[in-house]
Specification:
The complex is a heterodimer of chains A (about 300) and B (about 130).
Chain A (H helix, E strand, L loop, with lengths): L1 H18 L7 H28 L8 H4 L2 E2 L6 E2 H41 E4 L5 E3 L6 E4 L5 E5 H6 L2 H16 L2 H15 L5 H22 L4 H14 L7 E2 L5 H10 L8 H42 L1
Parallel strand pairs in A: 4-6
Antiparallel strand pairs in A: 1-2, 3-4, 5-6, 5-7
Chain B lengths: L7 H15 L4 H7 L8 H14 L2 E6 L2 E6 L3 H14 L3 H13 L3 H22 L1
Antiparallel strand pairs in B: 1-2
The chains are: A alpha+beta (about 300), B mainly alpha (about 130).
Chain lengths: ~300, ~130
C-alpha cells in the first residue's frame, strides 16, 4: 500500500511542472523545479527497475515459465534463467543509456577541445576567444575551464550593442554555473528517458537556463530588444556544439517574444515558492529510500522462501 | 545607437573582404577597394576598421605617417572553419560524400591547383610530425 501512495506522490511531483505556467517565473527558480523534476524521473526509473528485478520474483509472476527446462546439448534453456534475464533487462537498459550519454558528453568535450586547438585565431572582445568561422556563433563552452567563444562571422555580423549583449549573455552562463546543471540534467534524462515527458522536461530546463542568462545580460543594462535581435540572428545561423550553451539555443521564439513583450519578471506565486522546496524534499526522500526499498524487497523474498520451506 | 548601426554588419563584412583582397591596407586603400555603395566618408571607414581592430579581427601597425590594417585571419581560414566545424559533426560517410560533392563541382584548373595545395599541405604535415 505504501508503495502505491509513494508512486502516486512521485508521479504527481513529476507531472506538476508540466501543468504550471513557469514562463513568467524567476528563471533560476523555474530551472530548479525542472531539474528536480528530471532528477525525480531518474529516481522513479531506478525505483521501478529495482522493484521489477527484486519484487516480481517474490510474487511468482513467472512461476509457470520457471518450471520449463529444455536440455538440448550444451545449449539448454531454463525458464527461471530466462525470467531473471528479462527482469534484469530494464537495469541494463538504464545503465546503457547512462553510459551512452556519458560517452556523448566526453565526445562533445573532445570536439570542443579540437575546435579550440584548430580554429582559435586569438583573443577577442571581453575575454572571449575568436574562432575562424564564417557562421554566427557565440557560445560558452567547456566544463572545467569554460570560455566564451565567438566566431569571426559573429564579429562581422553583430553591431556593437548586439555584440556586447551576446557576450554578457554567455558570461551569464559561466557566472551562474549553468554547465553543471546541464550535465546533471542530461544524466538524469538518460536514466529517466523511458518515462514520457522527459525530453520536454530537458527542453524546459534548457529554456529557463537561457532565460537566466538573458536576465544576467539585462541586469548589465543591455536592452531586451537588442538581445532579442542578437538571439534571432544567431538562431538563423549557428549549429551549437554540445556541451556548449549557445546564444541561439533553447526555444528561441519563446525567449525572443518574452524579451520583447514582457521584459519585467512576475513575482513568484506562493504555489511556486512552496513547490520548489517540496520537490527538493521529495527528491531527497525518494533517493534516500532507494536502498531501503531494495533491502525490503530482498527481505520479503527471503521471508517468502523461508515460509515455503516451513510448509514443505 | 550611432548612425553606423543599421548597416554596421554589412560595412564590416565589406571592409574585411576588401582587406582580404588587399592583404593589408590603409584607410584610403580599403575605401577605394569597397563597392561604390559602401564607399562612405574617410572617417566612417576609419571607424569601421578601428572597430574591427578592437574586436580582434584586424591588426593595426604604423607605416610611415599612416596606419596599416592587416587581417588576423585569412579568408580561407574564415571559410574553412565553418566547413570543418560542420563536417566534424557529420558521420564519416557523410563527410566523404560532402567533400566529394564539393570537389565534383570544381573545374579542371581548380582541381589541379587543389592537388598541388593538397600535396603541399601533406608535405607540411609530414615535416611537422617528423
Amino acid at each position: 500500500m505504501i508503495y502505491v501512495v509513494a508512486a502516486v506522490v512521485l508521479g504527481a511531483a513529476i507531472g506538476v511542472p508540466h501543468a504550471l505556467r513557469l514562463d513568467g517565473a524567476p528563471p533560476a527558480l523555474a530551472a530548479g523545479v525542472w531539474l528536480c523534476a528530471l532528477l525525480l524521473r531518474a529516481v522513479a526509473s531506478l525505483l521501478a527497475a529495482v522493484l521489477l528485478e527484486l519484487y516480481v520474483p517474490v510474487l511468482h509472476a513467472y512461476a509457470p515459465l520457471a518450471g520449463v527446462c529444455l536440455r538440448a546439448g550444451p545449449l539448454g534453456f531454463s525458464g527461471h534463467a530466462a525470467g531473471d534475464a528479462v527482469l534484469a533487462l530494464p537495469t541494463f537498459v538504464l545503465i546503457g543509456s547512462l553510459v551512452a550519454v556519458l560517452v556523448g558528453i566526453w565526445r562533445a568535450a573532445r570536439r570542443v577541445r579540437r575546435l579550440l586547438r584548430e580554429s582559435v585565431v586569438g583573443p577577442g572582445p571581453a575575454e572571449s576567444l575568436i574562432l575562424a568561422d564564417a557562421e554566427l556563433l557565440v557560445a560558452a563552452a567547456g566544463i572545467w575551464r569554460p570560455q566564451v567563444l565567438i566566431s569571426a562571422g559573429a564579429l562581422l555580423t553583430l553591431d556593437d550593442e548586439e555584440l556586447a549583449a551576446s557576450l554578457a549573455h554567455e558570461r551569464g552562463h559561466i557566472a551562474r554555473h549553468h554547465r553543471y546543471v546541464i550535465v546533471l540534467g542530461e544524466l538524469a534524462r538518460a536514466v529517466g528517458r523511458f518515462l514520457p515527458g522527459s525530453r520536454a522536461a530537458a527542453r524546459e530546463l534548457l529554456f529557463h537556463l537561457e532565460r537566466d542568462a538573458d536576465r544576467f545580460a539585462l541586469a548589465q543594462r543591455h536592452s531586451p530588444a537588442v538581445l532579442a535581435s542578437a538571439i534571432c540572428k544567431a538562431a538563423q545561423h549557428e549549429q551549437p556544439i554540445a556541451p556548449t550553451l549557445a546564444l541561439g539555443g533553447g526555444v528561441v521564439t519563446r525567449r525572443a517574444r518574452q524579451l520583447l513583450e514582457s521584459p519585467q519578471l512576475r513575482r513568484p506565486g506562493l504555489g511556486l515558492l512552496v513547490l520548489a522546496p517540496a520537490m527538493i524534499v521529495l527528491l531527497t526522500l525518494s533517493a534516500g529510500a532507494l536502498p531501503f526499498v531494495a533491502h525490503d524487497t530482498i527481505h520479503r523474498a527471503h521471508a517468502e522462501q523461508a515460509s515455503i520451506r516451513c510448509r514443505a | 545607437m550611432d548612425e553606423l548601426s543599421p548597416i554596421q554588419g554589412d560595412l564590416q563584412s565589406q571592409a574585411m573582404s576588401a582587406l582580404w583582397r588587399l592583404h593589408a591596407g590603409t584607410v584610403e586603400q580599403v575605401r577605394s577597394e569597397l563597392p561604390q555603395r559602401y564607399r562612405g566618408a574617410y572617417n566612417t571607414i576609419q571607424t569601421v576598421l578601428n572597430r574591427l581592430a578592437d574586436r580582434g579581427l584586424v591588426e593595426r601597425e604604423r607605416a610611415g605617417r599612416g596606419i596599416l590594417y592587416r587581417p588576423r585571419l585569412s579568408e580561407a581560414e574564415y571559410l574553412s572553419g565553418t566547413i570543418r566545424r560542420t563536417l566534424a559533426g557529420a558521420s564519416s560517410d557523410a563527410r566523404q560524400a560532402a567533400l566529394a560533392n564539393i570537389i565534383g563541382g570544381l573545374g579542371a584548373d581548380e582541381l589541379s591547383e587543389l592537388r598541388e595545395l593538397a600535396d603541399a599541405a601533406h608535405a607540411a604535415r609530414g615535416k611537422r610530425t617528423s
